[in-house]
Design brief:
The protein is of the alpha+beta class. The protein has four helices and six strands.
C-alpha cells in the first residue's frame, strides 16, 4: 500500500523572513449569505442592502471573520502546512478596512520567528500575516501562531 507523504514544510524548513503569497479569491454574496448562516451573524451591515447604503461603507460589507477564514483557507491551499501542522495556536488580528462584495483578496504570510518545542515533536512558527485587496490595500493584518511537526 502506498504511504502518504505530507507536502507541507516541517518546522526545520521555516526561518525568519520566508514569505508565502497566495492566489486571490473574490468575495461573493453567496460567501456572505453562507457565512451568516453558519455563524448566526445576521448583522444588517452584512445582510441588509438598504441598511448598508445608510452606513459610511455605502453598502454591505463582508464579515471580518469571513475574510479571515478565507485567508486561512488560501494559506492552506498553498500546501506549506499540508500534513505538517499540528495546531493553530492563536492569533492577534486587526480589521483595517472593509471588504465588499466583489472585492478580491489574497494572503501574504511572512515567518516572524520560530521556537523549537521538542516535547511536542515540533515547533512554534509565528507569521506576520496580511490580507490585501485587489488594489493592494491591507484590509486585515496580524500574527498567526502555528505549531508545526518536526522532521524527526
Amino acid at each position: 500500500m502506498a504511504e502518504y507523504h505530507p507536502r507541507g514544510m516541517y518546522f526545520e524548513d521555516f526561518a525568519a523572513g520566508i514569505e508565502m503569497v497566495t492566489q486571490a479569491r473574490t468575495i461573493t454574496e453567496t460567501d456572505i449569505v453562507n457565512f451568516a448562516g453558519v455563524s448566526g451573524d445576521y448583522n444588517a451591515i452584512h445582510t441588509d442592502a438598504e441598511f448598508g447604503k445608510t452606513t459610511p461603507f455605502d453598502g454591505r460589507i463582508a464579515h471580518g471573520l469571513l475574510v479571515l477564514s478565507v485567508a486561512t483557507g488560501l494559506g492552506m491551499q498553498l500546501g506549506f502546512l499540508d500534513g505538517t501542522v499540528i495546531a493553530f495556536m492563536g492569533l492577534e488580528w486587526k480589521f483595517k478596512s472593509p471588504v465588499k462584495i466583489g472585492d478580491t483578496v489574497h494572503l501574504v504570510a511572512q515567518v516572524k520567528q520560530t521556537k523549537a518545542m521538542r516535547a511536542l515533536n515540533g515547533g512554534i512558527v509565528v507569521f506576520n500575516a496580511r490580507v490585501l485587496n485587489q488594489r493592494g490595500d491591507t484590509v486585515q493584518v496580524g500574527e498567526w501562531t502555528i505549531l508545526v511537526k518536526s522532521k524527526a
